[in-house]
Amino acid sequence: MAQQRNRVRIIAGKYRRRLLPFPDVDGLRPTPDRVRETVFNWLADRVENADCLDLFAGSGAMGFEAASRGARKVVLVEKSRTALQCLRDSKALLAASEVQLHSGAAEDYLARSAERFDLIFLDPPYALNLLPALLPKVGRMLKAGGCIYIESDRPEQFAGWQVLKEGKAGAVRFALLVAGSSE
C-alpha cells in the first residue's frame, strides 16, 4: 500500500493499516514505511510493555507504531502547535490511551523530565544537526538495557554508544544504539 500524501500508515499491531494525517510543517518528514518496518523488526522483542519516548514526534509515526505493537506507554513530544493538534486527533481516532502528548521543545522536555524509558526515538530535524548534543542528554533517560533509535541524513559518530544495527534507505541513515563503547 503506497503512503498517501500527508498520511502515514501504521504497519502492524492493533492499529494496523490505519492512516494517520500529518500537517504541512516545515521540516516534518515522517520516517518512511520501509524504514519503520525494518526498525520495528529489529525491535520485535523490545516493544511490548516498553516505555517509549518519541522526542521529535512530528507525524507520530514511530510513537504510534510502538503503541500499536504493545508498548505500555508512549510519550510524544512536539513543539509545533499544528503538528501537536494532528497528534491529538490521531490519539483520539485510535483511542490510544497509552499515548501521552507533551507540548514544547525537546530540549525543554529533557531539562524538566525525570522519566526513564526502554526505547527512545530520536529523529530531530536534519538541518539542525542536534544528534551530537542530544545523545548525552537522552542517554540519562534510558533504562538499563534500553536502546535509542536515531535517524539522520549524514554519517554520525557515536562516542560512548554501541551500534546494535544500522541501515540506510535513500538519504535516510538510521541506527539502534545502546550504552557502551562505539569501538
TrEMBL record:
Keyword terms, alphabetized: Methyltransferase, Transferase
Entry-linked Pfam families: Cons_hypoth95 (PF03602)
GO molecular function: methyltransferase activity
Superkingdom, taxonomy of origin: Bacteria
InterPro entries associated with the record: DNA_methylase_N6_adenine_CS, RNA_MeTrfase_RsmD, SAM-dependent_MTases_sf
UniProt keyword Ion transport present: no
Entry's Gene Ontology BP terms: methylation
PANTHER family: METHYLTRANSFERASE
Protein name: Ribosomal RNA small subunit methyltransferase D
Species of provenance: Vogesella alkaliphila
Taxonomic placement: Bacteria, Pseudomonadati, Pseudomonadota, Betaproteobacteria, Neisseriales
